[in-house]
Amino acid sequence: MLIVMDKGVTDREIQAVVKRIEDLGYKANPIPGAQRVAIGITGNQTPLDPEEFEAMPGVKEAIRVTKPYKLVSREMKGEDTVLSVRGREVGGRHLAVIAGPCAVENEEQALAIGQLVAAAGANFFRGGAFKPRTSPYSFQGLGEPGLRILAKVRDATGLPIVTEAMDLEAVSLVEEYADVIQIGARNMQNFSLLKRVGKSRLPVFLKRGIAATMDELLMSAEYVAAEGNYRIMLCERGVRTFADHARNTLDLSVVPAVKHLSHLPILVDPSHGTGRRDRVPPLARAAIAVGADGIMVEVHDHPEKALSDGPQAMYPDQFAELVKDLRAMAPLVSRTF
Ligand code: PEP
Ligand code: MN
């Protein structure tokens, strides 16, 4: 249930509502960014009676939230969530472009690609120091030394860093060096990891699982929000289907569906979504056209030598072209970039 308070509500009245919720054994969650003060109630197993709260001083109305995800739903918060990361905004009218190599391979490579994507107009740098690979014999990432390189890329380019944490130990390391924690597709339902990043001060970039429904994605986001971290960006990266012409099937239809149900920003990753660099620009443009809040793409200066995901990494000049296209498209979809 969502308790919406009157415009002129006093602190005392808010505290009384919070106390009432806690006395009933539930959790009171202040909803950030709302024009009015609003408090979300979670933890109740059965529906609450709105009248119990509507009679209290300072309460405008109590609204039942019908969806299983509460804190991330539009029912709880009508307006779009806008995150700010080192001055870069994601969500609302802003378009975010997150780019970089699949993996940090060495300092020279990461710095070179960082400079190239920054010059082309990316607003976040992404590279993996911990890589989830299908084979245990494939390159697994550089680990902490890779994170140190990422911090150098941020110093050199000014771009905030997005990087994946695959386990609890890595979350603490990523918190030391980076600006956004990526939770990869394979970990979308790693609930202990979700709870841990829910306690982080860093925003979370949450990728949809390879066979996850939209509701499951939103429930995973709810795990993060339930621990107090509302700074979540969702990411569609393609799902498994019978189609075998692409690495995955990029489900762009999920974008407007998520936007309808949730206030969280959703980005699209056409690199993992297609697995082929020539398919990335058209699907990146399509993603923006259907209302995505940005894209995440892989770029490499020597993709033929990349230690992971070379075939889907764009050449830097291809990326620069794509950014130009997105700049031209932005006003058509009422976005700034
Ligand atoms: C990645 O972003 O590099 C990655 C491994 O993606 P996903 O978790 O979507 O497979
Ligand atoms: Mn990759």
Give an account of the 3D structure.
The mean pLDDT is 96. An eight-stranded parallel β-sheet has the order 13-12-11-10-9-8-7-14. The protein has a four-stranded antiparallel β-sheet with strand order 2-3-1-4. The chain starts with a strand and ends in an 8-residue tail after the last helix. The protein is of the alpha/beta class and 337 residues long. 34% of the residues lie in helices and 17% in strands. Bound molecules: phosphoenolpyruvate (PEP) and manganese (II) ion (MN).
Q: Could you outline the blueprint of secondary structure elements for this entry?
A:
Blueprint: E1 2-5, H1 11-23, E2 27-30, E3 38-42, H2 50-54, E4 59-63, E5 83-85, E6 88-90, E7 96-100, H3 107-120, E8 124-126, H4 144-157, E9 161-164, H5 168-177, E10 180-183, H6 191-198, E11 204-207, H7 214-226, E12 232-236, H8 254-261, E13 266-268, H9 270-274, H10 280-289, E14 294-298, H11 316-329
Parallel strand pairs: 7-8, 7-14, 8-9, 9-10, 10-11, 11-12, 12-13
Antiparallel strand pairs: 1-3, 1-4, 2-3, 5-6
Helix pairs in contact: 3-4, 3-11, 6-7, 10-11
Bound molecules: phosphoenolpyruvate and manganese (II) ion.
Residues 102, 272, 298, 308-309 line the site of manganese (II) ion.
Sum up the structure in keywords:
single chain; 337 residues; alpha/beta; 4-stranded antiparallel beta sheet; 11 helices; 17% strand; elongated; binds phosphoenolpyruvate; binds manganese (II) ion
